[in-house]
Design goal:
CATH architecture: 3-Layer(aba) Sandwich
Low-confidence stretches: 301-308
Radius of gyration: 18 Å
InterPro entries: AB_hydrolase_1, AB_hydrolase_fold
Number of helices: 11
CATH class: Alpha Beta
Pfam families: Abhydrolase_6
CATH topology: Rossmann fold
Organism: Abyssibacter profundi
Protein name: AB hydrolase-1 domain-containing protein
Domain AB hydrolase-1: 70-287
Number of domains: 1
Mean pLDDT: 92
């Protein structure tokens, strides 16, 4: 577990402390971990193997993925998972927002949810969480699906473009700006990062409704504290990499830099798609993931095993 935390991370945990319950849902649940709880949602056929674990890309929360999960139900069981401190996943202290603490919390949740095997879906900076979990080998990961995930240099360049004046990355100031400006940041992000063909208003409305209901979005600590911990060690885990080509935030990112995570990965570029392949083109996303799982089953066994 990450030892200690910065005062700024502690401030973010305090600013985003959860005072309200998450929206009532028959399909969502909380998994208790050492430093708080992780909110999940299960979907798909019982007994499916492997299970696809999708890490929510903040400010997305489990409520954003209804269409995605319905599309995926035809090919796999899925678990949506909000990161510690984001959405309605709670943290007890600032150190739970650190990168390695996030990795360990997701691992702990997976260990409680079953024996796997898991295929991890990591979008954007969450892809580094997925890769680190695969590298550590504490839980059985048989495949990775990454979306909008460059190498470390590309990720840091992305942060520079998104925060050119380093306001959000200034400890203390960034935490206050992130908290007080969450509505403005959320509106800007969905408008800027989605493709012109995507109606981003439903995504924005869902995020704003949930933020108003008490959801967390400690973006400043993620931007400030995760960078030094990111790695790009080469993995031999079977990997599918997706790139939405109309993502303005990654307009200058080298797509091939994803191969530094998994040199043998297959890269698929999706036209008329922005930062969120899973949300902007759920049917296409499910098809690509389903085909990947079929290829994966050729070496690891059946994709779906249903009880008789």
């Amino acid at each position: 577990m990450t030892r200690g935390s910065s005062p700024a991370a502690a401030l973010d945990a305090w600013l985003w402390r959860h005072n309200r319950r998450p929206p009532a849902s028959a399909t969502s649940a909380q998994v208790t971990v050492t430093e708080g709880s992780i909110r999940i949602r299960r979907s798909g056929p019982a007994g499916a193997s492997p299970t696809l674990v999708l890490l929510c890309d903040p400010p997305n929360m489990v409520e954003h993925y209804d269409q995605t999960l319905r599309a995926l139900d035809a090919c796999t069981a899925s678990i949506m998972m909000e990161l510690p401190g984001f959405g309605f996943s709670s943290v007890r202290r600032g150190r739970a927002l650190e990168f390695m603490a996030t990795v360990e919390a997701v691992e702990a949740a997976l260990q409680q949810l079953g024996n796997g095997p898991w295929v991890l879906y990591g979008p954007c900076i969450c892809g580094f969480v997925a890769c680190e979990i695969a590298r550590r080998g504490r839980v059985p990961v048989t495949g990775l699906v990454l979306a909008q995930v460059p190498d470390v240099a590309g990720m840091r360049a992305w942060c520079d473009r998104m925060d050119p004046q380093h306001r959000l990355r200034r400890p203390g100031l960034g935490q206050w700006l992130g908290r007080l400006g969450a509505t403005r940041l959320t509106r800007f992000w969905y408008r800027f990062s989605t493709a012109a063909e995507t109606d981003h208003e439903p995504l924005t409305a869902t995020a704003l409704r949930l933020l108003d209901a008490g959801a967390g979005y400690p973006l400043a600590t993620m931007l400030q504290r995760w960078g030094p911990a990111l790695t790009e060690e080469s993995l031999d885990t079977p990997t599918l990499v997706l790139w939405g080509n109309n993502d303005r935030s990654h307009a200058t990112t080298d797509r091939s830099s994803s191969l530094r995570h998994a040199p043998a990965a297959e890269i698929v570029e999706m036209e008329q798609c922005g930062h969120f392949p899973d949300l902007e083109q759920p049917e296409r996303f499910a098809q690509l993931v389903g085909d990947f799982l079929i290829r994966l089953s050729d070496t690891t066994g059946p994709v779906i095993e249903t009880p008789s």
